[in-house]
Prior knowledge:
The chain is mostly helical and 80 residues long. It contains 4 helices and no strands. Helix 1 (3-15) runs antiparallel to helix 2 (36-50).
Amino acid sequence: MTNLEKLQDLLEDVLLLEDGQFSLDLTRDGVETWDSMATVAVAIGVEEVFGHHPTEEEAIALASVTDIITFLKAKGVAFD
């Protein structure tokens, strides 16, 4: 399983996305279920799946799939 697939699985589970709803353009503003509690759950999921725990400020800044990928790439996680 690729890291992108892992991220997709994580976000589908946390945000209760339906099949086909995940995309690289997905943002917090575009998903009704991506509220403050989901932001915490995403941060916890990122740590569980990828081994990198975002700080509170970093977690708040993770407002899109692109933001999450950028954060993980900065931690050395490959998304090729």
